[in-house]
Structures are given as structure tokens and as C-alpha cells.
């Protein structure tokens, strides 16, 4: 199955026509050809037709590669520091019983194994927000409200998220003296794109410094592998917290907070470097 995925980019066993993924080899060839054309051309330019003919690749393939990389490369040429100024943000659930979030976990088999997983119906949990750049990390902040017996975990809504931005995240960025240069990244979850949230983000970051659905710079849908929070942070924290085996929600929150504080700047920069500049 690993070989099939590496060769085809898919685990689908169904026959028929479909979009073929662009191979890493093709991307590398196009990149080298573009550089060669530019170095040998007095105009310092190239074209889809020229690259396609030189490599004997379909024009559509070359166009797709150049289109998908052009905006990223152009941004790097204008501002080489911009990847280091992105604040990667996300939320995650941490359960006391250490259950796995099946939304982010899939078991791939050629045949349906008809597996079942026994989990508590209402497992105690906390909902956590974190954000980090190449130089610092913000949070953890917990979505909760004060109940009769103390703090109670609550769902993420647009109003609660906007309140978190105004009362915690923005002041923290101001304390780091980086609010004017930070590029705020978030996924396209519905609470993130409510009117009240968009108003806060536009006011403090402008359209140019927000990467999100319903903004000028879109975040690719269904792309958790591109977000360092999903790529590294949540798995890293959950592994550390599970070793501690907290028994109560306050213990769980303390463990999360302690491990977040122990993340070094070197680890943050290395994570962003691997995510943005592979």
C-alpha cells in the first residue's frame, strides 16, 4: 500500500480516469528548467510552452506546477522573511482518557476491516488554542466558561473566538512587539470566518496579513499536512501529556501548559523551516 501511494498518490483501488498527481520528480525538473531558461535568457524569463517542450511534459502539467508555486516564490522574492512571521494557529481537543481524534486519524486498508473502537460516550476533555511562529509560541488558551463547580469546557463559537483574539492573542502579540508584522494563519473552520472574527482580524492584520478562507490569501482546504500545528504540535503535546497520565481536568491543563512552556525557539524554527521550505 505504501508503494501504491508513492507511485500514484492515491490508495483508491477503483479503475477509471481521474486526475493524476504531479510527481516530485516532475516538480524538480520544472524548477531546474526554469532556472536554466532564466540564466540563458537575456530577458531573465521563460514560458510554459518552452519548459514543456524542453522536458517533453504536457503543458497542463507544467502550468499546474508553475501556478501552484508562483505565488509562494513571488512572496519569498519580495520578502524572504515572511515565512518566519507567520503565526500558525489551531485548536485541538485533549481527552482525559487519551482517546484519538478520529477526524485526524485514518486507518487505510485495501479491504474494509470492519473494526470497532470502544470509547466513553462523554469523555472529559479540554479544548485548546495555540499559535506559534518561528520564534515564539502563544497559549495554551482553553475554551471554557465558569460554571457552578468551576471552569467548564465549552465549544468554539465565533463570539468566543473573537473574544479570545481581542483579550488574549492581540495583547500577547503586542507584548512581543510584533503585531505589525505578524501574518495570522487559521484554517477555514466556521467559527473562524464569522463576521465578528473577520472584523477583528481585518482591523489588526488587514487583508494582506491574514491567511484564511474568505480572505484574500486562502488557506488550502483539507490541508492539515501543511499546517505545523497538525503536522507537529498537537501530536507532540499529546504524546508528552499521555506519558504523564493526568487524572483530572486541572491536571490535564497543567500538563499541557507546562509542556508548551518547555518548547524551545530552536524547535519552533526547525518546525517552520521543514513545513515551509522542504
TrEMBL record:
Name the Gene3D superfamilies for this protein.
Ribonuclease H-like superfamily/Ribonuclease H (3.30.420.10)
Gene Ontology MF annotations: nucleic acid binding
InterPro entries assigned to the protein according to its UniProt record, in alphabetical order:
RNaseH_sf (IPR036397)
List, alphabetically, the PANTHER family matched. Answer: HTH PSQ-TYPE DOMAIN-CONTAINING PROTEIN, TRANSPOSABLE ELEMENT TC3 TRANSPOSASE-LIKE PROTEIN
Q: What is this protein called?
A: Transposable element tc3 transposase
Species lineage: Eukaryota, Metazoa, Ecdysozoa, Arthropoda, Chelicerata
Amino acid at each position: 500500500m505504501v508503494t501504491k501511494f508513492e507511485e500514484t498518490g492515491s490508495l483508491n483501488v477503483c479503475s477509471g480516469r481521474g486526475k493524476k498527481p504531479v510527481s516530485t520528480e516532475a516538480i524538480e525538473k520544472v524548477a531546474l528548467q526554469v532556472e536554466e531558461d532564466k540564466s540563458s535568457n537575456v530577458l531573465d524569463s521563460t514560458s510554459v510552452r518552452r519548459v514543456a517542450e524542453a522536458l517533453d511534459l504536457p503543458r497542463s502539467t507544467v502550468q499546474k506546477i508553475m501556478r501552484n508555486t508562483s505565488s509562494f516564490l513571488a512572496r519569498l522574492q519580495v520578502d524572504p522573511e515572511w515565512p518566519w512571521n507567520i503565526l500558525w494557529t489551531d485548536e485541538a481537543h485533549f481527552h482525559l482518557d487519551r482517546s484519538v481524534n478520529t477526524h485526524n486519524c485514518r486507518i487505510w486498508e485495501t479491504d474494509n476491516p470492519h473494526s470497532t473502537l470502544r470509547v466513553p460516550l462523554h469523555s472529559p476533555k479540554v479544548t485548546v488554542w495555540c499559535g506559534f511562529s518561528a520564534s515564539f509560541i502563544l497559549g495554551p488558551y482553553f475554551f471554557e466558561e465558569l460554571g457552578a463547580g468551576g471552569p467548564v469546557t465549552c465549544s468554539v463559537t465565533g463570539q468566543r473566538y473573537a473574544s479570545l483574539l481581542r483579550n488574549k492573542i492581540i495583547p500577547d502579540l503586542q507584548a512581543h512587539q510584533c503585531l505589525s508584522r505578524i501574518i495570522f494563519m487559521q484554517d477555514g473552520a466556521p467559527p473562524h470566518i464569522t463576521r465578528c472574527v473577520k472584523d477583528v482580524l481585518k482591523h489588526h492584520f488587514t487583508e494582506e496579513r491574514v491567511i484564511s478562507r474568505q480572505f484574500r490569501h486562502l488557506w488550502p482546504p483539507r490541508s492539515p499536512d501543511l499546517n505545523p500545528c497538525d503536522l507537529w504540535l498537537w501530536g507532540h503535546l499529546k504524546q508528552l501529556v499521555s506519558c504523564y497520565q493526568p487524572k483530572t481536568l486541572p491536571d490535564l491543563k497543567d500538563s499541557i501548559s507546562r509542556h508548551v512552556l518547555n518548547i524551545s525557539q530552536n524547535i519552533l524554527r526547525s518546525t517552520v523551516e521543514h513545513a515551509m521550505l522542504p
